[in-house]
Amino acid sequence: MSKSRILFIIFTLAIFAVILLTFLTAQPSPRITASIVGLQASNEIAGYARAERIRDFKFPDDHGPHPEFQTEWWYYTGNLQARDGRRFGYQLTFFRRAITPTAPPRESDWGTNQIYFAHFALTDVKNNRHTSTERFSRGAGQLAGARGDPFRVWIENWNVETVPSTPLRSAQDATSLHNARLIADEPGYALDLMLTSRKPLVLHGERGLSQKSVEPGNASYYISFTRLDTEGTITINDEKIAVQGLSWMDHEWSTAVLGKDAVGWDWFSIQLDDHRELMLFQIRQKDGSIEPLSSGTLIEADGTTRALTRDQFSIQVLTTWTSPHTRAIYPARWNVAIPSADIALTITPRITNQEMNVSIVYWEGAVAVEGKSRGASVRGSGYVEMTGYAITR
User: Fold this and answer.
1) Which residue of 65, 156, 327, 393 is surrounded by the most CB atoms within 10 Å?
2) Taking the complete model, does pTM exceed 0.90, yes or no?
3) Are 98 and 283 in contact (CB under 8 A)?
4) Is residue 214 assigned to a domain?
């Protein structure tokens, strides 16, 4: 083995060690998921940009990376159905994490201060099976990276990139069109999906500035495509299955968003069959209370949006589920109500065990929705993410 190859391996292992130590030592606690809170807490943030004020977004560039901020992610989730009625859920998420505020002054193509990692999961409802995996890589040497124009995010052969039916001719096109192809391939299971936006881009919070606690800068820039027609194939146990359904895309970037008393969050994305969508999040505090600046967004059928404050919605836990892997006790069914929008919903996981057993353990899974919207019966689908529940195995 050549000396250069040995140095490359040593450097790679060192980078992985840095990011894993960032995850596992952000808070001196036995809870695995303290680290996911640590990623969004106000620790070691000097020199990074902060989400402190409303910004003028510039698309398509703002679909790409913002390396001056410490943390960023591109989240794709969806509920899919095969021709025979079988149901599936998927998650493909790309994360970017800066380990220093500025890039190192190195001439090497391998020099970088950006780490990328990704999570890929499939839920097979009929067989009550959820499979998850992850990848890590450096944002250099074409191993991993992101760009805005044309949009692409990738880690090795996991990839999402826009495939516009017509070239983007204006910034308005970039806020209404999101035609993307998602590809992820692991031994035995994979996905290859085409996504087409049916609604314009949504800016959450105050024109895209989503405040998470009262401290200045404890906020993120948060944008979404909330209704993406989806078709393509998934592969489970080497069986390739044609599917179609709906997806949701989140893009969020920040440096620190959580207050010192936060222990985790619950996030909901809901797509109703009356063509309304709903995003809600609540941040849980150490004393059992909910962060007052938890919030949401209601997207109407015509694409217009309405910001929701914490006192305008309620989330009631109906039952719980205990993970056999971590012994974490997660909520497992909810009632969600928004009286001012005439919405009352019951949300149920399509299967209970959709825990992500990756470096940072959390629950992320497909859910079924039923209830009332504008006085009429409604059904729908969605995804729920829950962090801060898992304990050390």
Assistant:
1) 65
2) no
3) no
4) yes
